[in-house]
């Protein structure tokens, strides 16, 4: 009930801010276990809510951690079987979601081994998302493609000092589409350095406007891990502004007919949806049967970039090179980018990291000013 209650408070507050009156129906879905077992269980529950779902003008899904892939897979199935009308306005808030698995190597720690056999099995399944060839990853990425083709918007918000999920995973840095927005929650008690906050902010800014961060988020994620007790994994869902950020993106941004993505090499790929809508032309059958297959042209706009998770952070020369690319993108793509870079250099000079991981990050970046 935690997320539904917090989401309800946020919607009421957001509606008041925007001079709107709303009526809210909450549906809390809770169950432990493996991902696909949970999807099947929740699907049976949601099937019984079909009449209430049909009455809704807007559907807001708030998910956390393992619940992120569960929610996206569930929504895809609800579309597939006609439980949800494809013309509905729908948005997902994915908080600290395990989109690329937990931190590499966490499965070997005492934290995981201490769980019961059943809990351990569920947790170990999450590491399958580190492998793009696994059935979990393939089905999850296909579900993202399907729900976005129906016009669903996803707001991925990661926690800067998450002790379980690396930032590149929680913000789904491998998935690109204008219906995806990324943000990072920085807890006031995390003591996050200004330099790190700004670099992360600039990286997500670039990703949100269709450009590359040149892999900076991936390269620094390992150094941002918080303590096993008191980290940001479970703090993110207590802040109402997290929910309102998602609502702003979902409800205040427009739909589109086409878009382009510019990769690190500067090459641009253009995509085009059907002229009339961003939703697929095949609608679910009225009797609740399985919907028609989504046309190929509606599946293409979502772009995925695979990478080798085991190689992240292994080469000390990667980070300065990636950061150089990031700075050039900032200068070229972001308003007053030169002032942003000046602030980056100022904050870098004032930064005195305490942890070994962050000291290593600063050491690797010592030459960035000279190389820009």
Automatic annotation (TrEMBL):
Biased composition regions of type Low complexity, renumbered to the chain: 274-286
Residue ranges of the region described as Disordered: 265-291
Coiled coil: none
Top-rank lineage group of the source organism: Eukaryota
UniProt domain YMC020W-like alpha/beta hydrolase: residue ranges: 1-259
InterPro entries per the UniProt record, alphabetical: YMC020W-like (IPR058934), YMC020W-like_ab_hydrolase (IPR058933)
One Pfam family cited in the UniProt record for this chain: AB_HYDROLASE_YMC0-YMC35
PANTHER family assigned to the protein according to its UniProt record, in alphabetical order: AER328WP, CHROMOSOME 8, WHOLE GENOME SHOTGUN SEQUENCE
Name this protein carries in UniProt: Unnamed protein product
Species for this entry: Candida boidinii
């Amino acid at each position: 009930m935690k997320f539904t209650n917090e989401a309800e408070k946020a919607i009421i507050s957001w509606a008041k801010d925007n001079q709107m009156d709303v009526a809210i129906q909450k549906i809390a879905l809770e169950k432990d276990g493996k991902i696909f077992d949970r999807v099947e269980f929740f699907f049976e529950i949601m099937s019984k809510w079909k009449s209430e779902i049909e009455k809704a003008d807007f559907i807001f899904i708030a998910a956390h951690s393992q619940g992120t892939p569960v929610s996206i897979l569930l929504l895809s199935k609800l579309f597939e079987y006609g439980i949800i009308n494809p013309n509905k306005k729908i948005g997902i808030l994915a908080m600290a979601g395990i989109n690329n698995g937990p931190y590499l190597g966490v499965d070997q720690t005492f934290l995981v081994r201490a769980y019961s056999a059943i809990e351990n099995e569920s947790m170990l399944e999450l590491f399958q998302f580190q492998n793009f060839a696994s059935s979990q990853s393939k089905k999850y990425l296909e579900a993202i493609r399907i729900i976005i083709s129906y016009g669903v918007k996803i707001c991925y918000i990661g926690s800067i000092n998450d002790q379980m999920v690396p930032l590149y995973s929680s913000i789904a840095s491998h998935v690109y589409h204008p219906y995806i927005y990324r943000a990072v929650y920085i807890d006031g008690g995390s003591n996050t350095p200004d330099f790190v906050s700004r670099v992360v902010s600039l990286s997500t800014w670039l990703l949100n406007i269709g450009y590359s961060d040149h892999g900076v988020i991936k390269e620094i994620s390992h150094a941002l891990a918080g303590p096993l007790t008191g980290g940001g994994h479970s703090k993110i869902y207590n802040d109402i502004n997290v929910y309102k950020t998602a609502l702003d993106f979902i409800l205040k941004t427009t739909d589109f007919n086409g878009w382009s993505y510019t990769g690190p090499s500067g090459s641009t790929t253009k995509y085009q949806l059907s002229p009339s809508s961003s939703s697929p032309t095949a609608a679910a059958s009225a009797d609740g049967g399985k919907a028609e297959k989504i046309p190929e042209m509606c599946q293409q706009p979502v772009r995925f970039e695979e990478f080798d998770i085991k190689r992240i952070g292994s080469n000390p020369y990667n980070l300065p090179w990636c950061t150089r690319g990031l700075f050039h993108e900032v200068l070229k793509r972001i308003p007053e980018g030169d002032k942003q870079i000046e602030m980056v250099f100022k904050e870098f000079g004032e930064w005195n990291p305490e942890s070994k991981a962050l000291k290593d990050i600063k050491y690797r970046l010592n030459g960035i000013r000279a190389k820009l």
